[in-house]
Amino acid sequence: MGGLLGLVLLSLPAQALAQENLEEARATFEQAETEFERANYALALQGFQRSYELLEGHPRRPLVLYNIGRCYEELGRHREARDAYQRYLDEAGSEALEREDTEARIRELDTRVTMDASTPAEGGGDISPLGPVVMGVGGAMLVAGAVVGGLALASRGDLTAMCDSAMRCPADSRGLADEVSGLALATDVLLFGGAAIAAVGLVLTLVLQEDSERPAASVACAESGCVALVQGSF
Q1: In whole angstroms, what is the distance from residue 188 CA to residue 159 CA?
Q2: Please, what is the angle between helix 63-74 and helix 78-92, to 10°?
Q3: Given pLDDT bands bounded at 50, 70 and 90, which one contains residue 77?
Q4: Whole-model pTM above 0.70?
């Protein structure tokens, strides 16, 4: 890559530019050149931008845009570098230095901008829809389990009201007792099964990402419920 464009200010007419602005612009420009040589491109960019602001009305002001483009290019900000170079050519017109080199840079940066737009960001892998779908099924089962559990409790209350303190129930309560037993079993199946399926869905959501560093995951279930364990680096 080429170097920067130097800027001779004091030997040129300042027109309406205030002398103090001219002096500050020159000092800021020179400091930015130093920072660029030290590979402090962010500081150099800041300095060139400030110098450009101070030079409003000066005939050599557009030249600073070339150096701003160089800083953006070194920082890997291809779109901004391309735009700065194009502004330099537009504002400098026939006075533009290094025109062929600048035009070549713009063409190269056009290609880089296109490549940047078509390349997915690192670590931003797409999530497979399978995981969220499985999680949704598990969630639906948990909701259903809560509803059935409520019905089971209500039926158990009705059965208790029909029995004495020793839980001796009349013969005609047999059907209600079977209903309570069935509802209790369905509640357990829905709650435990829903928790397990939701946990599997969570694991799938995390594992099925198009990323090179996939987290290790596992699911463990006991009588008290299910737990999803995910191990990864952050």
Answers
A1: 20
A2: 170
A3: very high
A4: no
